[in-house]
Amino acid sequence: MTPTTSLDTGRNRYWFVFGGVLLLVAMIVGTMIGPAGPTWWRIPLEFLNRLPFIRIDSGVSEQDWNIVWLIRTPRVVLAAIVGSMLSISGASYQGVFRNPLVDPYLLGVAAGAGLGATLVFAFQRGATENWIVDPLPLAAFVGALVAVLVTYVVGTAFGTTQSTTTLILAGVAVTSLATSIQAFILQRNTDVVRQVYSWILGRLSSATWGDVRLVLPYVLLSTGVLFMHRRLLDVLRVGDDEASALGINVRRVRLIVVLAATLGTSAVVAVSGLIGFVGIIVPHAVRLLAGASYRKVLPLSVLLGAAFLVFADIPSRVLANPAETPIGVVTAFFGAPFFLYLLRTRNTST
Amino acid sequence: MTALGFCDVQVSYNGIEAVQSFNDLLHSGEWLCLIGPNGAGKSSVLRAAAGLVPYSGSIAIDQKEIPATSARWRAQHIAYVPQSPLIPLDMNVFDYVLLGRNPYVGHFSWESKHDKEVVGDVLDRLDLATFARRSLGTLSGGEVQRLVIARALAQEAPVLLLDEPTSALDIGHQQQALELVDKLRREQGLTVVSAMHDLTLAGMYADRLVLMHQGARVAEGSAKEVLQPNILSEFYGVSARVHHEDDGTVVVIPQRISTR
Fold first, then answer.
1. What number is the average pLDDT over the span A87-115?
2. In this complex, do B120 and A231 lie within 8 Å of one another by their Cβ atoms?
3. Chain A partners of B129 at a C-beta cutoff of 8 Å?
4. Of A10, A165, A291, B255, which alpha carbon lies 20 to 30 A from A95's?
5. Level-2 CATH architecture, domain A37-349
6. Are A312 and A334 in contact (CB under 8 A)?
């Protein structure tokens, strides 16, 4: 009797539960640890106390609660959002380009955002403090989108059959161009090098609920669109030609996926800077653990990517206390050995 | 009844003409084999029919012209097996064949129970059921070839295009694959167009051969009519003997030119 079910439906659920529990644990632990604030075990009690119909005397003062609710919690939530967005974008990019080494910064997002941010820093950051809209995330967001747009227009104008190669090369060219302009500006404004460098390494330290509100609409839209394409990403795994012969408009699917992933990535980069490694390591870890079908890879990347960045953010606040260790440093430092371990154990067993 | 019709189909790449005005009419259940030297335009004819290259002229199925814009409609009517399919090694057999149901699944919806039943049925018919949960990376070349044909069958399209279906297989698996296609077209009335390099096999399985050269049709007919030493010498530049078996099989044997 031929099975009429798709691959391991049962084991799927197991992984989703695992991812969900991991994220929940990460977020709870994330709110409990920090350089200042109330004793760690009181914090979950106070959260329960704040729920309707529940009264628990946690002994947390109003001032301590403010530290937890206004500083720590938005930081944890933002880490989860950024981690999930970078992971799902990375997975989607890898899908449409059929290239495992691709990350969400591929088509110029990083360089564009970096250039935008550098311009703001060089243009007297102090003078913009009283502006109604903080120009830093806006400039980074616009810079990222413009860079990818230029890449896409240039890449598809010349590419006919080999369109993904042309597109990736166009991304490389746009990245170099933006980086060189950024270097030129830094050369002439050496006083802001430190600020720019710390922005590039990524940071969640100044996260506020305002940041969360700022990125959430873009992230939800982008994630929703990418989720809708996860079956089509599986069809694309057999290549452009065969996917076309199976009735898919490959160019249109690729354009939509790239645009959606870029929109979400640009939004999170605008508030958190460039956090490397997440967009590559998380999708691959998911593939090694649960299989390569995008039906599983995308939702699991969201859960595990969020959990990963929330966990990575914890050492970044306490490691060099009272200073902040840039989160990009932590993700690579802890992520790389873990990933090597996964590669080694999984590849030998399959 | 005409199952597949080519009317003045032309294909060119960057201004270079690959296929000049290709015309043909295939009746339902017919197997047409395109032969010809490398670069003759065989693959281009198939790729045009599969919607992978732009073409002028028209291609019709059951006298209905293929709409240029609907990839889905085309995929419901034409299944295409490429020369060297891209095999995602970590995909499993069932999921791979399930891709063949894509033309029937809405863009943002999921395969129905019926789609999965069709796949299960195809796997049963091709003796692949025991492989259903294996990943493609663990299969042999012959099994993979059968699997790609299985995916094409899951499309339930009346027309099957095969581009060099056997070039990567050993002689035993070549026979198996071609026998399979032959059986399927007899059982289900599939109309088959294939491009092949092995002239003996081509003549053995196809109802009709079309010899192409530099984008043009230069000879057409049964194996006996097309596979003649002078024709082969003219268009392939090959020195070959042609041997006729008692059962009608035409065997093409290349000759050694240098002296031993």
1. 89
2. no
3. 1-2
4. A10
5. Orthogonal Bundle (1.10)
6. yes
- Does residue B259 lie in a domain region? no
B214 touches chain A (CB under 8 A): no
Domain ranges across chain A = 37-349
Residues 116-145 of B with CB under 8 A from A: 116-117, 119-121, 123-124, 129, 132-133
ipTM attached to this prediction: 0.89
Chain B residues lying within 8 Å of A228, measured CB to CB:
108
* Position A125 confidence tier, pLDDT thresholds 50, 70, 90: low
Where residue B1 falls among pLDDT bands split at 50, 70, 90? low
Task: Tell me the pTM.
Answer: 0.88
Q: Per the domain annotation, does B260 fall within a domain? A: no
**Residue A116 DSSP SS3:** helix
What are B192's two structure tokens? 């088959």
Nearest-Cα distance to chain A for B252, in Å, is 33
Q: What local confidence, expressed as pLDDT, does residue A55 receive?
A: 79
Cα A46 from chain centre: 30
Q: How far is B222 from chain A (nearest CA, A)?
A: 30
Long-range pairs of B203-206 with CB within 8 A, sequence gap ≥ 24: B203/B33, B203/B227, B203/B249, B203/B250, B203/B252, B204/B178, B204/B249, B204/B250, B205/B31, B205/B33, B205/B178, B205/B181, B206/B31, B206/B32, B206/B33
- In tens, the pLDDT along A253-285 reads 998 999 999 999 999 988 888 888 899 889 988
pLDDT at A41: 79
The pLDDT-based confidence of A245 (bands split at 50, 70, 90) is very high
Residue A2 pLDDT greater than 60, yes or no: no
pLDDT tens by residue, B139-193: 988 889 889 999 999 999 999 999 998 887 888 888 988 998 999 899 988 999 9
Distance from CA of A5 to the nearest CA of B (A): 7
Interface of B with A in 30-49 (CB under 8 A): 47
Chain B hits for A232, Cβ within 8 Å? 107
Q: How far apart are CA B201 and CA A28, in angstroms?
A: 68
Residue with tokens 């069809």: A235
Rg of chain B's alpha carbons, rounded to an integer?
A: 19
- The mean of the pLDDT values for chain A is 85
Query: Does the beta carbon of A246 lie under 8 angstroms from any beta carbon of chain B?
Result: yes
**Enclosing domain of residue B7:** 2-254
Token readout for A329 is 């440093």
Residue of B nearest to A288 (CA): B90
Assign residue B55 the CATH number of its domain. Answer: 3.40.50.300
User: Is pLDDT of A348 > 50?
Assistant: no
Count of structural domains within chain B: 1
Q: Which residue has the tokens 């099975």?
A: A3
Please state whether A273 falls in left (phi above 0), alpha (psi between -120 and 50) or beta.
Answer: left
Q: How far apart are CA B200 and CA B35, in angstroms?
A: 11
